[in-house]
Structures are given as structure tokens and as C-alpha cells.
Amino acid sequence: MSIRIVRLGSPRLPGEGTRIGTVRRPPRGVPKSEFASGDWYDVWYPALAPSPELVAQAQAAQQTGNAAEWTRFAKHYRAEMATPENRRTLDLLAALSRGADFSVGCYCTDEAHCHRSVLRELLVEHGAQVV
């Protein structure tokens, strides 16, 4: 059993399980009734998405390719995820990963420049089984 880190909207892999969208906003132009069938997500959980300010910071770092800006974003996102509520969510997902298959994801093309790369690290740090 494990968690997969995925790009939302990409074809589902066998054994991927329930997809959790860790994004601030639903996909544009997609009817809510098509979120799951279109391989976006089954459950929307924006609590694990960066704040709107951090989304803008990540996008700027991605566009410029500035490594220092990306490092700053990752540090601030980790701080957001360090709140008691978010730590409990990460602990819950880590525990669930030992008994169920599911996935978490975002829309970004490049995981290396997406909050899901940091989320992957955080889940591992909380003891999750991550593929």
C-alpha cells in the first residue's frame, strides 16, 4: 500500500486508488461532474495546497528558473505545512498509506518545480509509504 504523487489530469495508473487534488482551485472549464472521469481528482483537498501568495511565488520562481526563489518558496510552503492542522493531515495520510493505495497531486507539468515535490518530502518525513 502506498501514496503516489501524480500530475492531475494525467491518465491514472493501475493501483493508483483515490486521487486527492492538493490544489488551490478546481480545473478551469471542467464541469464538476467530470473531475473524476477526466482523471483530475476524486476528492479536492486544498488545505495541502500552497496559499495564493505562495502559488504566485512558486510560479515566479518557475518562470525565471531562479533556484534561490524556489528554495524560498519551499521553505515558506514547509512553514505553512507545519501548522498543527496540516501536520495532523500529513500524519493521517502517512498512516493511511500503510493500508490503502491513493494518490495526491497538482496540475504542474514539472514535479521538480511544483509544491508536490515538497509535499512528497513531507509525506516521507511523516512516515508515509510513497511510490
Helices and strands, in order, run as EEEHHHEH
Number of helices: 4
Can you give the helix content as a percent range? 25-40%
Structural class comes to: alpha/beta
Biggest pleated-sheet summary:
4 strands, parallel
Computed CA radius of gyration, to the nearest angstrom: 14 Å
Indicate the low-confidence ranges by residue numbers.
Answer: none
Instruction: Bin the strand percentage.
Output: 5-15%
How would the global form be characterised? globular
Report how far apart the termini are: 9 Å
Structure summary, number of beta strands: 4
Mean pLDDT: 94
How many separate structural domains?
Answer: 1
The strand line-up of the biggest sheet is: 1-4-2-3
Q: How does the SSE layout of this entry go?
A:
Elements: E1 3-7, E2 18-21, E3 43-44, H1 52-64, H2 67-81, H3 84-96, E4 102-106, H4 115-125
Parallel strand pairs: 1-4, 2-3, 2-4
Helix pairs in contact: 1-2, 2-4
Write a concise keyword list for the protein shown above.
131 residues, 4 helices
Give a nutshell description of this structure.
The chain is an alpha/beta fold and about 130 residues long. The chain contains four helices and four strands, in the order E-E-E-H-H-H-E-H. The chain has a four-stranded parallel β-sheet with strand order 1-4-2-3, covered by helices on one side.
